Amino acid sequence: MKKEKCNLCGNDNCNYILTAPDRQYKNKILTKYYHCKNCDVFFQEKNELSPNIKNFYNNDYKPHKIKSGKVQKLINKFKNIFPQTTKLDRKAKKTIKNAKSIIDIGCGNGDFIYKIQQNYPQKMYYALDISPNAFNKIRDIKGINKIVSAFTKFNTTKKFDVITLWWYLEHSITPEEDLIRINKIISDNGLLIIGVPNHKSIARYLFKSFWYNLDAPRHINIFSPKSIRKFLYKNNFLIENITFAKSTLGLVGSIKQLLNLNNKLLIILLEVIFFPISIIISWLKISDLIIIYARKNK
Question: Domain limits of the chain?
Fold first, then answer.
């Protein structure tokens, strides 16, 4: 049997973990995942689908959309009171406040950079995404440069004080090339903020192929605190801090997939029930999402 080599470190000391379907679009594609014992990353089996991964982001891809409706407004109010997936530590807030230029790579609907721009409008803002269907939150907002491009094809001589990768790196088929490019465009004392799913989470162990943040086949490499630390250090970045998001997304999303739930009121109830549990899970450092703060290793 052919041994699978790790996407990141090239080591062949890897174990097969699971096979998962595309639960978002319910097509017939099956994706195999392996675990590298050397660098501790989960990665997809190399196959003919990888170069065409962008074909698995349909026009209704959820991160590109702004959800609407009365029930959704209730969910949004709850999440605004208790921000979960993009809550920043104090040092990062101070850096952003003093920054002159910020770029959000893989911006999705633009929600993060919209919130920052509303608080600090007198900065240079860039939002980049490969899909023209993105930018829905910021499409008509002045003062944010919106760029439809793959990051690998984004050419600039500008230097950025803050670079954010919210839920981007797990999608990238060229993560090492991305970090090399980031190293060139980040200012000398610039801050790199990365949000990624955590395969060491309790939800991943409980729900296996139904784990919401597996998101096959779109998630190609899934990190852990250990693997992201090694990966960043290899590419000349030192981590200042890793935080564990107080997020209900993995637990509630996984239950929705497992039970095929569509009742929005029931989903709100689950969000409320699981929020205090998500705080405990975050404290135990086994939550679904981790946020990494790093700077250049000078």
Answer: 14-293
Contact predicate 195/291, CB 8 Å? yes
Q: Quickly list H helices, the chain.
A: 70-81, 90-98, 111-119, 175-185, 202-207, 225-234, 249-259, 264-283
Q: How far is CA 27 from CA 20, 24, 45, 216, in A?
A: 11, 8, 18, 11
DSSP string, 172-224: -S-HHHHHHHHHHHEEEEEEEEEEEEBTTSHHHHHHGGG-GGG-TTT--EEB-
Q: Would you state the CATH architecture of domain 14-293?
A: 3-Layer(aba) Sandwich (3.40)
This prediction has a pTM of 0.90
3-state secondary structure of 54: helix
- What letter represents residue 235's amino acid? N
Q: Which residues in the chain come in under a pLDDT of 50?
A: 83
Residues 251 and 286 sit within 8 Å (Cβ to Cβ): no
Report pLDDT for 62. 59
The pLDDT tens digits of the residues spanning 195-220 come to: 999 999 999 999 999 999 999 999 99
Residues 6 or more apart from 222 whose CB is under 8 A from it? Answer: 33, 41, 42, 43, 170, 196, 197, 198, 199, 213, 214
The answer to whether the CB of 272 falls within 8 A of the CB of 78 is yes
Residue with tokens 């935080």: 243
Burial classification of residue 1, based on how many CB atoms lie within 10 Å of its CB (0-12 exposed, 13-18 middle, 19 or more buried)? exposed
At 85 the pLDDT is: 53
For β-strands 124-129 and 101-105, DSSP reports them as parallel
- At 136 the pLDDT is 87
Strand (E) or helix (H) holding 289 = strand 289-296
